[in-house]
Structures are given as C-alpha cells and as structure tokens.
Amino acid sequence: MGTRKRVHAFVRVKPTDDFAHEMIKYGGDNKTIDIHLKKDTRRGVVNNQQTDWSFKLDGVLHDASQDLVYETVAKDVVSQALNGYNGTIMCYGQTGAGKTYTMTGATENYKHRGILPRALQQVFKMIEECPTQAITVRVSYLEIYNESLFDLLSTLPYAEPSVTPMTIVESPQGVFIKGLSVHLTSQEEDAFSLLFEGETNRIIASHTMNKNSSRSHCIFTIYVEAHSRTLSDEKYITSKINLVDLAGSERLGKSGSEGRVLKEATYINKSLSFLEQAIIALGDQKRDHIPFRQCKLTHALKDSLGGNCNMVLVTNIYGEAAQLEETLSSLRFASRMKLVTTEPAINEKYDAERMVKNLEKELALLKQELAIHDSLANRTLVNYDPMDEIQIAEINSQVRRYLEGTLDEIDIINLRQIQEVFNQFRVVLSQQEQEVESALRRKYTLIDKNDFSAISAVQKAGLVDVDGHLVGEPDGQGFGLGVAPSSTRPGKKSKSKKMFKEQLSSLARKEGARSPVSGKDLDASTSKTQLTPSSKDGDVKDMLLQDRETSSIEPLASESPKEELHPPRPSTPPAKPVAFEDFKNERGSEINRIFKENKSILNERRKRASETTQRINAIKREIDMTKEALNFHKSLREKQGEYENKGLMIIDEEEFLLILKLKDLKKQYRTEYQDLQDLRAEIQYCQHLVDQCRHRLLTEFDIWYNESFFVPEDLQVALKPGDSIRPGMMPLSRILSLGEDDQDRFSRLQQTMLPEGPDSVSFYNAKVKTEQKHNYLKTMMGLQQTHRK
C-alpha cells in the first residue's frame, strides 16, 4: 500500500465588482485567507463575538483564469491517473459561487472550458505520448437528484435501458453503481460528445441567487486501463478519475426558493450536511465508524473520501460582504477536509490470458532444459508430456499382469509414470471390489448386520433364527436364498422391446411435427401420392417455364425504356416555367411533395390561428360588456348605500353571477391566448420549413436545368451515379455544393478557420453534433405533436 497523504484544498473566489476588501484579505504566500467581521453593537458592551478567522490552505485562486486553475488543481491528479493512481476532484461551495463553471466551464467558448473537458484532453494527449502501452478509456455520468440515482447517458440510442433501479454496491474491489452505463471512447471527440450529452440532461432551476442553479450532484468518472504492448508483461494498471460537481448549499431566506425548488434545496442541504459529518469523522483519528451510508452522495464517494485516491477539493466562495457567513462556512469545510488523509496506491492487476501464455512458454523452456539434462545423463526416450489414453491403458495392463503374477516388475521411467501406476492400482482395486460385490448379489441376498429393521423382517419371515443362522442349515452347511435376475422376473418386458417402442414413438412424433399426417395413414398417404395423375405436373412445369421466361424478359423490358427515357437534347433550352413543371414531376417530385405537405400544414395552422383570434376577440368583447355591467352595479350599490356583515361586502345575486362569469371569461381568454401563442410558434416553424423546402426546390431545379441543357453530354455520363468525375471536368466547389448544406459548410469552415487552434476542433465538433441531435429530436417531437392534433 502507498503512504498516507492529506487532501489538497484550494479556494477560488468568484470575481465581483463589490469585493469586500476590508473583510477578506489574502496572505503573501497566496495560501492564507483572513476574514474580519465587524462586531455586532446590538449585543452590548460586553461582547465575546469572534471577529477574526484565518484559514491556511494549499492555494487561493483569486481572479484566476481557467488555465491557471487547471494547472494548479487538476493536472497532477490526471497525470498520476495514467500511472495507476485513482483521483478525485470535487467542487464545493454556496449556490452561484461558480462550481459548475470551475468543473465544466462555458461550453460555448473553448477558452472558458473547465476542469472536466481539460482533463479529457490531457488523458488523450498522454495516450498519444505512450506508444508502448495500449490504453482504453471509458466514461460514465451519474446524477444524484433528491436522493435518487440517474444515468445522464441513458438517452443515447445504443444505451440499454435499465430494468431495475440503480443501486450502490460494495465489493472487495470497491464501490460501484449497479445499472450505471459505462461507454468506451476511442477518441477525444467521442468523449466530448458524451460530456455534452450528459450536460443537456442535467436538472437546473432558477432562483434569486443563480439563474442556472444545478439541482443535483453529478459525478463524471473517467476509467483508464493500460496494458503493455509487450506480450510477456501480464501486469496491467487500472485507475479512475472522479470529477464531482456538487450542488450548492443555499439559505432559503436568500434564495427565495418555493415549491419544487424548495424541495430540491432541502435534499441538497441535507446531503451536504451528511457529507460534512463524514468529513469530520474522517478527520478524527479516534473515530472507528464513518457514516458513509447516511446518504447516496457519501456512499457513492466512499472510495474517494479517505480511500485509495489522490483527492483535491476546490472550494468556491463569494467575495462580497453580504455572503460572508456562507463564505465562512465553506472555508470551515475546506479546513476540515485538509485533516482527512488518503492512501493512494497503484492499482495493478494481472491479465489471466497473458499469464497462461507466459506459463506455457516457461513450461516449454523447462521441458527443453530437462531434455538436455537427460541427454547428458544418457537417459533416452523420456517423455514429460501428459499421458494419453494409450499410455494409460498400457500402464493398466502392466498393473493387472503384475497382480496376476505374469509380470515380475514394472519399469520406472519418470515421476508422472509413478503417479499413474499408483492411480491404476486404485482403479484395479475398485473394479475388483465391484466385481466381487456384484457376484455375491447375483447369488445371495446380502443384508447389512447393522440394519436392524432388515434383520427383524427376515426373522419374522422365518428365514433366519434368533442367532442369525439360516433356517435348515445343517452343521454349518446350509442353503442360501437365491435372488432371480431382474431380467427374468415375470410381468416385465425386456429392455430391448421397451427401447424399440420408445424409438418408434419418437420417430412418430418427429414425423407428426413435420406434417399433419398421422402414423396410421402414413402408408396410405404415400401410396396416394404415388398414384396421383401426372397431368398437373405438366401444368406446373409450364407455369414454371413461363415464370422463368417472364423473369428473364422483364429485365430486358425494364432496361430498354431506360435508354429511351432521355430524349435527344433540344437545340434551344425550354422555358424555365415549362422545365420547372417537368422537374416537379420527375426529379424533384419528392421535394415537391414535402413542400406541398408542409404548405398544407402551414395553411391549416393559419386557419386555426385565425379562428382562435376570432374567438379571443369575441371573448374580449364579452369581457368588456361584463365589466361595464359590473361597474354599473357597483355605482348603483354606492348610490343606494353599501351593506356590510362582519366586514364582508353584501352584493346581490345578479352581481355575484356577473363576477363568476367574468372569472370564467378570463380563464377562457388565457387558455385561448396560450393556444394562439402555440399556434404562432408552430406557424413560424412551418413557415421556416416551407421556405427551406422552396429554397431547396429552386436550388435543385437550377442544378438540374444547368446539367440537363448546358452541361456537355460526356460530362453528364460522368455525373451519373456510380461513375467517377475525372479531375478538371467540373469545378470542385460546384461538386461540393450538390450535397452540402449550410451546416456542413459551416462545419468545414470551422475546422479550417478555428481561432483557438487545432486542439479545439474536437471540442467544437462534439458541441455541434450534440446540438444537431437535440434540434432534430425537438423537431421530431414537434411534428409528432402536430400530427396528433
């Protein structure tokens, strides 16, 4: 095992314009942070309130860039992971203090990426620098939301859905999540795609302190397995990196959480409280029991907290005076974490397949060495291989002859032969015992002397006297009770007949399974089929011949029109309106059909929106009329004098009914208005689809028109499917534009003109692919809802 080392704790201060310079000060070593709090004068003259705190940590990151944070916090942990050491990096702090920004960063900007994407990049870069090792990388993404476990990568199409809920299981190898999917990533772009997929599935909410507050704890795990490319080395190392983004603790009075967000905050604060209790217990050397199982978070991180792991804590705090109490609480947690010790060690394992191959190779070398020693000692014909059946049979024969006396001695060759000789002695002895016992059973009825029930039964039958002698035994020579063989007992048929019947029944079952003909009608059916007239066979043959002729003629008939489909090109191109109609009926028929469908859907949505607008206007007019009637009743009541009963206004029944009617009208108005908003969104989307189809239709028509009437015929042959375009016959940009849309063109330009350099290509590619996938899913869901309506 490795030596024990303390957890590294860093503090990152969120940049702010309202920094409390008088209350928060940093030490000159950039590892100390001092907090000064003014005394509360409301407590009187005698006031023992503590006003100064000093926290010694491993580093204070103030106004630090994402590059500096990663270099300081995570780079060493990730590099040691490829040497076999487990690692954990955890972000802790108040809600809105920048934990998710530190861990994940801003996915829209490559420069602002966080620890997690940078760790993935470092892992794959180090893999490229290790050509002597075959390294595989797998990732998983776990979310703990309201004390329930969720797989953030379960939405992938190839991920198998979990039938049972995920559970935390402990084994001698450590703690693992049963039911959590682990995905193999062979390149950096695939890992980024999995990261962005999981990020889109996270649960977030908004409150007064953070517009995009994470409402769950998330653990992104990178599993590394490194095998040596040298086949003789059976050792390999495994490691995992846990990147933990904790949900932020929050004071409900400041965040103003309500409803579902309030329930989430309760679970978050509860789990963070249990986490702090576990940290306090780990820091106390006298404690024997650590409460890991109080919540799912501490149970899942049992290996990371005080186990075989290099652990780093990043505490995110505010620099404002209004959040000073939460800042003190976070710094206390960081100082307690520094008291925790871990025992990191290299995770070495052995490859069973390679071990077997190495042992076989070593065995072959030892056999060769034995052969050399035998030749030097003048010992020939010594075989050290395992004995085959022929050799074992020969030893058995020698043992039998030795026991019979026909063989004086058995020649000893090697140790393996000695062991087999003793083994054959045991086999022969066992066989002789069985033969003796079977011979006695054929001749006598054997009774065990210790079986008192059998002895009493024989005595009652009068076969044995009290002393145990057989009845009628004269002078010690009597007769025995013979037992007839089982094959000669009456009332039982021979085994051969029984087996024959079973074979017949099984054969009948097989025939019955093949055809519905019964066993009795088998002969009759065969005779009937043989006596069937052969006139129908000729008809069948004629039909088969006709089918073959038509099948051979059809390809020729289908191929001949293809050559005549394209008439000779006219000397002058036709008018574009005429050609456009031909294009819509031939090559552009599919696009034209989609265009018409989208246009009909758009017209139907516009019609529904117009009807909804008319209903809204009618409801609005009725609301205005009802309000006028209520105002009239109110003015009439004021003129007549208002009546009160225990502080409640007394109104007549007509006015009460008007109030109820106004309430219902407003409810109808809101419902219709919401439907109108949804219809407008659908109209906008459908209009976009119609414009896109129209643009595609016109673009394809231009291409078709130019190719059909302006491109030379020899070039048209090269442009057919299956043919290749020779260099120089058509401009490359023209060829690319035939199958490239705006998104593809953007991706191509992005790869060649990225400002951040080539390292950001995989990052942006994964981001674009994830956005394309989710946009497609949203579009399909919208279309499904449209068809349902």
Automatic annotation (TrEMBL):
Residues 536-551 have a biased composition (Basic and acidic residues). GO terms for cellular component: microtubule. Residues 349-376, 602-629 form a coiled coil. It is found in: Cytoplasm, Cytoskeleton. Keywords: ATP-binding, Coiled coil, Cytoplasm, Cytoskeleton, Microtubule, Motor protein, Nucleotide-binding, Phosphoprotein. GO terms for molecular function: ATP binding; microtubule binding; microtubule motor activity. Residues 476-579 are annotated as: Disordered. Belongs to the TRAFAC class myosin-kinesin ATPase superfamily. Kinesin family. This is Kinesin-like protein. It comes from Balaenoptera acutorostrata (Common minke whale). The lineage of its organism: Eukaryota, Metazoa, Chordata, Craniata, Vertebrata.
